[in-house]
Amino acid sequence: MDANAVDTSMTANMTGGYDIEKIRSDFPILSRKIHGKPLVYLDSAASAQKPKVVIDALVSAYCDTYSNVHRGLHFLSEASTDAYEAVRGKVAHFIGAKSDDEIVLTAGATMALNMIAQCWALPRLKAGDEILISIADHHANIVPWQIVAEKTGAVLRAFPVDEDGSFNMTAFTDMITAQTKIVSVPHVSNVLGTVFPVAEMAKIAHDANALMVVDGCQGVVHMPVDVQTLDADFYVFSAHKLYGPNGVGILWGKAEILAELPPFLGGGDMIDRVTVEKSTYALPPHRFEAGTPAIAETIALGAAVDYVQSIGMEAIRAHEQDILSYAHQRLLAVDGLRLIGTAVEKSGVVSFTMDCAHPHDISTIIDNDGVAIRAGHHCAQPLMDFYDLPSTARASVGIYTTREEFDALAISLEKVNRIFA
């Protein structure tokens, strides 16, 4: 196959009723060329592309109804507020929350994790308490806990994964102690693709009287999520990985826990009554949403949720699992390529190294063929240290990814072999 010609018809035929050609046509950027070659976008784990319905929702929010929310009684303010608040309900339904009031709208998953660390952990932890994470966590689920540990005297610990990236239940349970107060893990590793058994982990954490926090950035985009079934205490994710806009994220928390938390930021819209001497605060979720929010972007997140639900998360998962299986098979045929992360329970990403070239060189060379992947430590330096690697190359899948795109990647990687050989 010519690396410059990506044909989607084969995938369309192989995935049943999943209309890959229609889905790809919904994303304007996928029709453009890079360096004169058709774009092969394999970097959705970093940030997913946006369907036209999301772009249109963003434009409409600015062009047709824009005004500040919760502030005015005029038409535009009420229209904007209605559209903004409707997203809370859409997200609650999407992830199986009990109530819209359990959905806190944030500036992203990183902010959400920092909110949990500062509002729940900082006032409660003391010297000798333990925070348990995994070696496979993203920096956003490491650094906030380090800050809390430094301020409180708590100890941050990380349990390992197996050499192939698989979750190791024994390694996890062996590190749960009477001092464990928080367990905070990814739903899916952004480097290995390993799916963590969150529901089982939550039960173990709760049996130890520990709080369970889940970074769902790579989970909610690839599979159905029901937070009540998972039974974590907090679940966070970002809009931009869910085919939505930048600058918006979700913090879901159990209502009884949110009710106990102090505000994260002070300002307008998070208050009940303010005097010079003292303020009282709004009930959750507004208590945690100080200031003017990302109004148009939040409305566009609602369009993204509608979009993926119109396809169906089960259908998305089936399609992506087919692509992932093919990707492993196709890339293993490339000379000198080593896959990093081959767990059976896996989703979303294919990380790899080549014995002839640094990942940065790999990414630069294949970019000339229009192939976009990520190269680096992926904000997971402890995991890189665990594997004694400076970095990896990473190809990631989305709802629009085809088998033929991994053919194009493999062909470009053979070019890397030729150049460095």
Molecular structure report:
The chain has a 7-stranded mixed beta sheet with strand order 4-10-9-8-7-5-6, with helices on both faces. It has a 4-stranded antiparallel beta sheet with strand order 13-14-17-16, with helices on one face. The chain has a two-stranded antiparallel ribbon with strand order 1-2. The chain has 15 helices and 17 strands. Strand 7, helix 8 (198-207) and strand 8 form a beta-alpha-beta unit. It is α/β, with parallel strands linked by helices and 421 residues long. The protein has helices spanning 9-14, 20-25, 52-63, 75-95, 109-124, 143-152, 169-174, 198-207, 227-230, 255-258, 295-311, 313-332, 359-367, 381-386, 403-420, and strands at 33-34, 37-38, 40-41, 103-106, 130-134, 155-159, 180-186, 211-215, 234-238, 249-253, 271-274, 279-281, 337-340, 349-354, 371-372, 374-376, 392-396.
Question: Which tags fit this structure?
Answer:
421 residues, alpha/beta, Aspartate Aminotransferase, domain 1, Aspartate Aminotransferase, domain 2, 2 domains, seven-stranded mixed beta sheet, four-stranded antiparallel beta sheet, 17 strands, disordered N terminus
Please give a quick description of this structure.
The protein contains 15 helices and 17 strands. It is α/β, with parallel strands linked by helices and 421 residues long.
So, the CATH homologous superfamily of the largest domain? Type I PLP-dependent aspartate aminotransferase-like (Major domain)
Radius of gyration: 22 Å
Q: Share of helix among residues?
A: 25-40%
For this structure, the CATH topology of the largest domain is Aspartate Aminotransferase, domain 2
Q: What's the overall average pLDDT, rounded?
A: 95
Counting helices, strands and paired strands, the structural category is alpha/beta
